[in-house]
């Protein structure tokens, strides 16, 4: 039986490929595929952003090789960055509630 972390990794891979296979190269996200993924899978993050061009800015930041697409390796950096930010918020919450050991 897979562990929670193994399930999370599988989910990350499956979500990426669910959107990547919609047009063009099935191993990368186009700008439209990235937008759809973020609108559906990261909607709370997008709602909290005040910049209407945030997806385009994220696309530019993620596309490190400048090929106009986002590979899985490039996409993972978004997930890692958001996860780090969420963990930092979690730590602040623990301190406020006195739940930290």
TrEMBL record:
Source species, domain of life: Eukaryota
Signal sequence, start to end: none
Domain EF-hand: 50-85
Key words, A-Z: Calcium, Metal-binding, Repeat
SMART domains: EFh, S_100
GO molecular function annotations of the record: calcium ion binding; calcium-dependent protein binding
Annotated GO CC locations: cytoplasm; extracellular space; nucleus
PROSITE patterns named in the record: EF_HAND_1, EF_HAND_2, S100_CABP
Protein name (record): Protein S100
Organism: Electrophorus electricus
Lineage of origin: Eukaryota, Metazoa, Chordata, Craniata, Vertebrata
